[in-house]
Amino acid sequence: MFLGPALKLCPDLVTIPYDFPGYEEVSRILYDTVASYTLDIQAVSCDEMFVNLTPLLSELKMDPMQFVQHLRQQIKTKTGCKCSVGLGANIFLARMATKRAKPDGQYWLKGA
Fold it and tell me: Which of 35, 62, 91, 106 has a CA-to-CA distance to 73 between 20 and 30 Å?
């Protein structure tokens, strides 16, 4: 909901200022952390992306859930922010898995 309609519904609403430089810094750290593993990234927003991990995980011979647990821990250590990760064979399945993973979790939705 936009602020104008929210204030009409709740005139006593207390807002807090945006911290755009802080958002930009965390976003840069997030993307840099993922990019340190692969550049196969499709940016969606400042804090959301789709990443093709298949070649990387094949090369590392690593379990996908183990890898994303490690990646999530790195992001939390570097930014102080929790994150959710959804894994799937395509963007649709990954997006559905992410919804299931929230908040601060991970989920692998395996296709048929």
Answer: 91
